[in-house]
Amino acid sequence: MPGGRPFKREFTLSLEDGAALVAAAAVAEMADGAYAAEVLHRHLAQRAGLVPADWQQVLGELIRHRAELAELRADVRAVGRLVNQIAAHTNMARATPAVVVLQRMDARIAAVVDRVAQQLAELDEVAAKARERL
Predict the structure, then answer these.
(1) Rounded distance, CA 41 to CA 54, Å?
(2) Is residue 2 part of a domain?
(3) What is the pLDDT of residue 63?
(4) Which top-rank group of organisms is this from (predicted)?
């Protein structure tokens, strides 16, 4: 960040708030301190009126979608690991997996693909709202 963040403060959190901060920072793929600073920055900008009131809803929806997309990334990784495990087992056993295993994988993959499509459609709606406000 240009100029850095030279204004340092120390604060304490409850166990619940600390856990929530760590989880939210992980979802955002940020360090805990950087995430806390970003949240504070956004809060202060909003209070100072730097974020127009009609954008607050759009920003809230984008933040919610970002968390949901992080969950989807985890689901896609999990499905990928399962596919790799099935492939490794198939190669070792030199036999095709049982039909029921393949059907379950197909259903799991379809469910993840459907969730991704739904999230993308919802993000398109949010983007349309944002374009209306520009």
Answers:
(1) 19
(2) no
(3) 80
(4) Bacteria
Whole-angstrom distance, CA of residue 85 vs CA of residue 114:
23
How many residues are listed for the chain in this entry? 134
100 lies in some domain: yes
Q: What is the number of domains present in the chain?
A: 2
Give CA–CA dist 98/102, Å, rounded: 7
Single pTM value for the model: 0.51
Distance between CA 37 and CA 34 in Å, rounded? 5
Residue numbers of the domain that contains 31:
9-51
pLDDT per residue as tens digits for the range 101-122:
889 999 999 999 999 899 889 8
Query: Tens digits of per-residue pLDDT, 45-68?
Result: 777 666 565 666 777 788 888 888
Q: Which residue has the tokens 């739904």?
A: 118
Looking at residue 52, its pLDDT comes to 60
